[in-house]
């Protein structure tokens, strides 16, 4: 290549004067973006009306809802409202009026319930059960809910002879146990007027026991009744009963806490096989006690010729012990994304 050809060849870098213009435009763009966003703030009530512009993370969680949209993409809803929560991540698009400013809005009032129940129902958002609640159930089984979102589990007396053992991802409760109990108790719902009829992704008051007017103060996804009634024959109390009523994760954690106490409360006579808490069959007596250690759950008092329980409409509860119903829920999950499970191994499908 000749010297003249080299001199006529265009260079890749722009002239200095254009580089200065490029930097000016970049600074101007950053300034516009900085002025166009507002940090999410905390408050008792928010109405969120804008999509997320940028920021770290992919979701913002609160006590009564979960926002799980892609940052930088339009939201699929116009309003996402919740009570008593804090937005911890991301930026929200700023217009003439900052959209992160707390905006008071009336929350629906739940109808009063039986006065023997210690807590009134709270209004909250019921997330999708198969996309959101199922992973939470699995996390509860491995003691992975976190110490701020749920009660701290007691150790479990596992093995033979029993030894205090931490429930953990390596030694979990079989998640099909929790799925079965939570399905039978509440269809995996914390908020609903009717567990069989109300759809997901909607807001309702706390799901209560069908016998609440008779004094059965069962709340939420695990239908927690212990210490939730003034008529309880054994006076007791939980540190945060309002969280049992208003938070799905906390209610689930409290239910697991009670289930572990039922396991630990068995006498040595009721140990099964190696007393291994990672095997579903070992939970027979603890599951029985979760519903009630009484004659209604005695398998010897039910029809000895009864077929295995499968469907609530065909086989009503009075003719089947609670634990057999839970075993059916584990073996024949109603979750449309799951298939039949053989309830013999550690953790199921």
Instruction: Tell me the series of helices and strands, N- to C-terminal.
Output: HHEEEEEEEHEEHEHHHH
Backbone CA Rg: 27 Å
Strand order of the largest sheet: 1-6
Q: DSSP helix count?
A: 8
- End-to-end C-alpha gap: 70 Å
Can you describe this structure in just a few lines?
This protein is of the alpha+beta class. It is built from eight helices and ten strands. It starts with a helix and ends in an 18-residue tail after the last helix.
Describe the structure.
This protein is α+β, with helices and mostly antiparallel strands. It has two domains: 37-93, no CATH class; 123-331, no CATH class. It has helices at 3-8, 16-36, 129-141, 175-186, 241-246, 248-264, 284-291, 322-331; strands spanning 37-39, 42-48, 60-61, 66-67, 80-86, 91-93, 123-126, 156-158, 163-165, 202-205. The strands form five sheets. It has a two-stranded antiparallel ribbon with strand order 1-6. A two-stranded antiparallel sheet has the order 2-5. Helix 3 (129-141) packs parallel to helix 6, helix 4 crosses helix 8 and helix 6 (248-264) packs across helix 7 (284-291). Residues 2-12, 32-104 and 342-349 have low confidence and may be disordered.
